[in-house]
Amino acid sequence: MVRLPKAALTGRFARHEGHFDPGQRIANVVLVVLLLALTISGVGMARLHGGSTFATLARVHRWSTYAVTPVLVGHILIAAGLLPGYRGVWRSMHLGGRLDSRVARRIWPAWLERAERAEPPDREGSTREPVE
Asked: Is the pTM value of this prediction over 0.85?
């Protein structure tokens, strides 16, 4: 995690196992927790009309909003491919899941290796001769 900000700017990610890189894993957990806090506090405020519980829910809602905003902005920067380390990632999100193998090798090398092993032998680009 210490190297993630530098990797996002340079594209030099440390090898990691799994579908998500460490930043994605943390962002997913943070987003789920904060969106739950926003939802629960928002529903609580809608049902209450004043009092100390309402004031506490309002503080939770406000601070959850402050915390979730930079996470969402970071997600948008990454999804748009504006950070150099994540260039090309937007294609997998917005163009039907197609991902350049060079981008996958740079960001998700273990996932790419598993995907290549699971690839059927007769797919396009295979060295196997077609059966007639």
From this structure: no
The DSSP code for 85 is: G
Whether 6 contacts 12, CB under 8 Å:
yes
Task: Say which DSSP state 81 is in.
Answer: T
Distance from C-alpha of 48 to C-alpha of 30, rounded to nearest angstrom: 27
CA distance 63 to 45: 14
**Residues 90 and 79: beta-carbon distance below 8 Å:** yes
- Quote the CA–CA distance of 31 and 71 in Å, as a whole number: 7
pLDDT tens digits for range 50-60 = 899 999 999 99
Residue 37 neighbours by CB under 8 Å, 6+ apart: 60, 61, 64
Q: Compute the Cα dihedral for 94, 97, 98, 99 and give only its sign.
A: positive
Count, residues in the chain: 132
